[in-house]
Amino acid sequence: MAQSSSEGVPHLRRVGTTQQLVVKGRPFLALAAELQNSSMTSAEYMESVWPELVATNINTVLGCVTWEDIEPVEDKFDFTELDRIVLRARDFGLHLVLLWFGSFKNVQGISTYTPAWVKTNPRRFPRAKLRQAGGILQTGDVLSIFHQEGCHADAKAFGRLLAHIKKIDGEDSTVIMVQVENEVGLLGDSRDGSVAAEARFDEAVPEELIQFLTRDWNLLHDDLKVNLKHFKGVSGRPGRSWEQVFGKGAHTDELFMAYHYAKYLDQVAAAGKQAYPLPHYTNVWQPFGDGEDETNVPVVAGGEETLEFAPSLDFISPDLYLNHYASCCRKYRHRNQPLFIPEQRRDEYGARRIWTAFGSNQAIGVSPFGIDTVESATNPFTKHYALLKSIATIILDAQTRPDDLVGFHIDELAADGGDSFKPVIKHWGGYELIIERCFVFGKPGPGAGMVIHLGDARFLLIGWGFQVRARSLSPTSTFTGFLRFEEKQVVDSDTGQLRTLRVLNGDETRSGIAAMMPAEDPDYGGFPICVTIPARTMIAELAVYSIQEEDEI
Predict the structure, then answer these.
(1) Which structural domains are found in the chain, ordered by start?
(2) Highest taxon of the source (predicted)?
(3) SS3 state at 8
């Protein structure tokens, strides 16, 4: 996995099984958001957007740089608009992740952001062919990856872009990452049906792919193995076509395309890395799932295997809208690659889930899409990011000890009263902690947060809508109780220093039963006494103790 060794350039740093983004020598938690597709093509348009981004507690903005804008005429580059945008982001104290809309954009991987001189010259830049019923070939709105002219021109433009960013921003690190293309893939067919593509499909499978799958079989993601069942029987017989090696079907077509897309993207990314070695990634659209259904299996799951053939990319990122969020996060942490979610839902449903990404999957950042068309006052991320911003240093430290950290999200009860949230159980410091919905007298509400094991029998609780119960794991324990429960306030967000705002007890612990982190407006169900008082800071430290048989008279 490619990483920069220069401390002055934003880069990835591995700590155990965790990788963190380092900006200006310090670990950085990207509380990010992506703009609408074409918003960042105009510095004038962005003038009204920057203040709203700051008010939403965002620290990183994902926005496009399009090939057609920076190279409208071949070999004549214009970065005027981009320069204005970088300078204004810097003025507002915001970082940028540049999204390179080059050869491919959107889930269809279409080529609509290519310059006119590419679009109008299909002889030099051939299109992919989609196979239709009756053997008819339809010209796709997408460059074929089986011709080198498009790749070479794209790589040249991308390299010039990164060289320019280094020149204007190398000392400031306003730009901290770049995305190479966007959601590459072919929609409308399982593979390109052009003459060049068919010839490549009939050739022998590249030996490097055969060797990789054979060598790393036991390390492959289980989902990928499902789609490679046929391979096991022929893995030692090189010189065979794709269908002979992998079997006939869409899974082989898509594996064929994934391999060649990886090679294409690597050439583009390599040009950028050579010019300015920022972290480079690409994003992946997920196959449609059924809400929180975990059963939808992509052909190539997790992304890490793709990096074998695109070593100039640092990681692969999932766009998460309609799939099981926690499951996808785990898949894209496969083999300890860093997790960054460049696109996801921007509503409260999506906002709750980011705690699972940061807490249980050590995400370096998350990014709701379309942030410039929702006001900060009504944006649910404003609240979530405010809390995360105040404790980012604490989270970054805890992420280096992933066994001591868990994040979770709690959704609304179903219409029939069903509860999709299952209590989270962790064994830490000789105790079993049970994390569950916060008790209320009326209808329980949603919540989100994380719990960090601070060592021994001390725990930091962050968030709302949940409670924690504890039980000693000692076989001789006769009682487990709360030694201290304190609401904490951030003194210094840069250092993570906290101080005690108030000591909680009594009603806030249900008389010693559960350490409660209530929501802002708990339902009392008509009960006349307001017991579950909302926490002001949504940060609390809990210390527990137990009594052993030998301690008692």
Answers:
(1) 11-129+148-189+258-400 (3.20.20.80), 406-551 (2.60.220.20)
(2) Eukaryota
(3) coil
